[in-house]
Amino acid sequence: MVTIADDDPRRPDVLALLGEHLADMFATSPAESVHALDPDALSAPGITFWSARGDDGTLLGCAALKELSPQDGELKSMRTATAARGQGVGGALLEHVLSVAERRGYRSVHLETGTQDYFAPARRLYERAGFVTCPPFASYVPDPHSAFYRLALPTRVG
Hints:
The chain is of the alpha+beta class. The protein contains four helices and seven strands, in the order E-H-H-E-E-E-H-E-H-E-E. It has helices at 12-28, 39-42, 89-103, 120-128, and strands at 3-6, 47-53, 59-69, 72-80, 108-114, 132-133, 146-152. The chain has a seven-stranded mixed β-sheet with strand order 1-2-3-4-5-7-6, sandwiched between helices. Strand 2 (47-53) and strand 3 form a beta hairpin. The protein is globular. The model has no long low-confidence stretch (mean pLDDT 93).
């Protein structure tokens, strides 16, 4: 059982997971191509941060949604704990974030991830969810180490 709830990115166990995330990003990508947010940035206005936890409270993963405009969001800092990989945590987090984006009335959700083999599982997850490649968005610029994706969300009627 996975419970996803708003959380504080400065909690000790979350800090450790985000530290692993940033370390992996810098180990696999040139510094100028690392776009992961630090805990302070994940606490900024316009960003909602969630953690996924097991029944015993163990941190299984995290994700954030950054508002780019009233109609558009960006998936940020999605990470599954090493011990929880392959158990559907990433899919559950992605489904949660997309559900919130739809409730907010967003028309699309964007994301940036790496092009290296390390990021292949993440790209497959996003593509299975319907994300398609797109040009750089927001303040991103073309980068051979970055893959940009966009998912059009259902339009609300009424």
